[in-house]
Amino acid sequence: MSEIPQGYHTVTPSLTVRDGVAALDFYAKAFGAVEVFRMPEPTGKIMHAEFNIGDSRIMLSDEYPHHGALAPAVGEGCSFMLYVTDIDAAFEQAIAAGATVVQAPTDMFWGDRSGKVNDPFGYRWTLASHVRDVSPEEMDEAAKTWAEQNQA
């Protein structure tokens, strides 16, 4: 028997949102999330839910301010990196589901094509497809160029 239950990894994020039912619906539409478990209160508020995106499990609950569980404002929560087969199609799917554009899909110097969106529940998602392998030397040079071009 393992100390990690089947279906989980060593680290499992847990999101706090203002409308758990709507969040579960959004994640299904935007990212193809598959709900695994839902524990609602009699009022419908989500005490605990779990869903998978690909092979990754994420937990979710509604806010419980009296327990210190508060949802972030849009764009102020943590950020997730989600690798997908087709970044452009996945990006459009997320926007159609209600995400807002932070950065349109762009070919990046480290070999990914990626774009960023904010979901309506406070969290940022970077969607990416790995499109080419980059040597450490090439990445180092490209990072220096990028830093020079993006200094504030």
TrEMBL record:
One Pfam family this sequence matches: Glyoxalase
Entry coiled-coil feature ranges: none
VOC domain residues: 7-130
Transmembrane segments: none
Domain of life: Bacteria
InterPro entries according to UniProt: Glyas_Bleomycin-R_OHBP_Dase, Glyas_Fos-R_dOase_dom, VOC_core
Protein known as: VOC family protein
Species annotation: Luteolibacter flavescens
